[in-house]
């Protein structure tokens, strides 16, 4: 719907040089009666409403309702998000691991980069 409203406004401002989301259906879009911002908004809203998806579709005389939950996956349940976020927060409270690589500080003065010419 937003893309259709954009196309109406783009056509109003840029004409044939407008970059459209749906260039193949530009002829189906309502045109504003003037270049006034209110008229452009009105035409854009009209275009958006014209392409609003309906909650039910008419199919061969019977009404078929769309099932929005058919493809719904509860990602919070799949990934156990509440507990994952709690465990991440607990991880921030842990002390850093101990350095077991040795206690000699023989390489403290060694530079990682050499600037000699």
Helical amount among residues, as a percent range? 25-40%
Strand line-up across the major sheet: 1-2
Point out poorly predicted stretches: 58-64
Number of DSSP E strands: 2
Structure description:
By secondary structure, this protein is mainly alpha-helical. It is 37% helix and 7% strand. The protein contains four helices and two strands, in the order ααββαα. Strands 1-2 form a two-stranded antiparallel sheet. The longest helix has 14 residues, at 37-50. The N and C termini lie far apart (64 Å). The model is unreliable at 58-64 (pLDDT under 50).
Describe the structure in brief.
37% of the residues lie in helices and 7% in strands.
Fold topology:
Layout: H1 2-14, H2 37-50, E1 56-59, E2 62-65, H3 75-78, H4 81-92
Antiparallel strand pairs: 1-2
Defining key terms:
two-stranded antiparallel sheet, single chain, 117 residues, mainly alpha
